[in-house]
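Lab manual, section 2.4: Encoding a predicted structure.

Procedure: take the sequence of the chain (861 residues), apply the prediction step described in section 2.3, and record the output as structure tokens. A sample record is shown.
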Amino acid sequence: MSIKAFELVPAIERITLMSEKAKTQIGCIEVCGKNLYIGTTNCFVVHYKVEEKMSTSGKVVFNTEKQGHKYLAIKKPIVALKAASALNRILVLCDGTLTLLNMFDLEPIVGGAKVKGVNYFCVNESPSRNNPFSVEICVALKKKQLQLYTVTEDRMIHVRDFSIPEVALSLTLDGAFVCVALSSQYCMVNCDSTHVQDLFPYDSEHTKPLVKRISKEEFLLSGPNALGMFVTSDGISERPPLQWSENLLDVSYVHPYIIAMNDEFITIHSILDQQQKQAIPFQGGTFLGNFDGRIFIASTREIYSLVPVAWEKQVQALLADKRVKEALDLARNANKFGLSRDKFLRIFRRIQQQAGFIQFSQQHFDEALELFKNGEVDVREVVSLYPKLLPSISNFTRCVPPLHEIADVNQLCRGDESMLALYKNFLRMYLEEIRGTRDGHGYKQEIDIALLKLYAEVNSPELIPLIVVDTGCDLKDCVEVLEKFHRYHALGLLYKYHEENEKALIIWTRLADGHYKDEAFPGLEFVVEYLANLNDHELVWKYVDWALEKDPELAVQIFTERPESEPPTERFRPDMVIDYLHRFPKTVIAYLEYLVFQKKLEKEKYHTHLAVLYLDSVLQLMTTNNVKKEHLDQARSKLRHMLQISNLYRVQLILGKAKETEMFAECAILYGKLEEHDKALRILVHKLKDYGAAENYCLVNSQGREQNLRKRLFHILLSVYLDPAFERKDTLVAPAMALLNSNVAEFDTSKVLQLLPENWSVGLLSQFLTRAVRKSLNYCRMTRVECMMARGENLQVKQTCIELQKDPVPITDDRMCSVCNRAFNDPTFVCYPNGVVTHTHCAKNRQVCPVTGRLFSTKKS
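Recorded output:
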């Protein structure tokens, strides 16, 4: 596909020398700065001064002025010219002789600056020597030999010779490598190692040998079948070949284009994709060359310049043809001469943005997404393509000059709903990717409102998180959309985010009552949790009654799940809440449980109230028919737990009610609270016959209290087992023996022996007696050990005291306290191990010296 990369502009219309009749034809040219040199076929060197200017119409024109000419008097064509600006010299090849001329007066340099038998020569593009006042050249002799020379102002210094298998017709020197076109093949010569590497053959009858340097140690060669072959110094090709026309006359390179000339056209090829980009009709061409980025072309009588079209214009032309990849490749690889990095990046980002909208219009969404992100496009440019997605307060106007010609996505979709859905899905992905990133910075509201509208339309699960967490959505733009698509729960959350709590509650209560339908609504639990955390107490009380009517057991959480950091207020004082909840008995129990067990309020009225309600609940179940046993057991378990752990309720009140029914376990707990352990244990043993519970009673009621109480409780239990007044006392022998032999029970052995019936045998009591004897012996031995340890400790204290007293500490009238520097008026003092003596009140820490800060060990070594 074509593109206008260059314009052909006349530089010198017609060459004139001595007269119009002179048969002067151009053989070669050389350009150095503003100096243009022409080598003619009749042995003239002509010097022109050429200036490039911009006309009033904006086109490039050339002003030329002839400076002089020189006839070399050989009557042979001049084959090649090369300028050495640092030396003010021109190298001229004519009739097989390489000579030097002065750049300005074109006079030959005398003094031996001449090489004969030359077939072709070239200048080293990357010289190994850094001497600015010399030039390295490579000369191809008419015999099978190459020579290296160093050229100075007045001489050519021979450096080295290389043998080659055939005569060289063309060559290029770059660094240490010479790429040579021989008469039948190409080869690569390493000047350092003299190694000659064959590249590939060619037919010299059908192919003109051409060698051009492309980049460092990379060359372009004219190959067979009209192919341009890229070759590196290693003899390999790293680019695909170029296909150009037959009858190639010359070739040149200016990045990123290869310029080829045949007898009819000048063709422009891109080195990026190896495709032809432009063809310019041109006949009679004799020479084509790149002179420091300026392309000059010569025919037999005229000289033209290929003026490059600005790369920005080329890119815009490619974008206009929707050739996005070519445009981006060209922009990346264009000659950016005169552009700062920041300015180029600004231009390139705009190109990426334009390319992104082209890909967008062609439904290439992945490519468009990448280009939008890399080009840092203003997100509003994209959102504005979707009607009614920008905020109503936005005053955004599209970029000028415009980045695209798209009116909106409706223009692209033309009524195709499936395509419109794809475009909306693309916008959603794009906004999700840039949200919270640098690309979306400053456009939070535009992004969030657009996302909300997109999510609401498709009922996306991302709608709720968008609203809940740091949203930029406002009410003005979003309420209507959420109502339109029936996203009522999201609407309530949006009201909540903007602290419109009452409006949010109106929405949620209608959802809970079934007036609105929304699958995203979590249910009444959500409303209760919201009310529990709402700090507007007036509004909370407005909806408490509604919640209690819906579900009393759930609604009580409004009071029990309040934030811990919430300061106490009169409206939520416990007494007031309890009075309010009396219409819903179960909620009173739940709230009192919260006060007693969670808040741990130690007020008798709350504990008593909760215990009474527990008891009433049990009594009601006991008098109700067909009550499941597990329900009754669960209610009684809660009551017993409350009676056991609390010490703040009115025991007599509860006991009076419990005694009216057969609630023996509860009565036992209550008697225990009154310290009437005998009655409690008799209930457990005689009424309930729960001997394990009786034993556990002794452990629980003595826990955390003095040890003698535990012994006393177990003695009471044993006395209950052995009570001779009990009618069925024989049935309690087994539990009595089990108690005596228990590992957890504690007794005073002498008192136990007094309680035991006289008719019990020693064999029956052997286990208890054995354990008692062992325990007594162990106690005796441990007492003796403790006594001996105390005696040893006493001896150590005495030894320490003697050691401390053996060295006297003289206290005279002149001796002063080391801390306060006052005299000792009291016979008591403190002496530290390091000799520091102080008053007793000055020695604040007996282990640390108050003067030196030294720490003394508190243990005796």
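Check your result against the sample. The mean pLDDT is 89.
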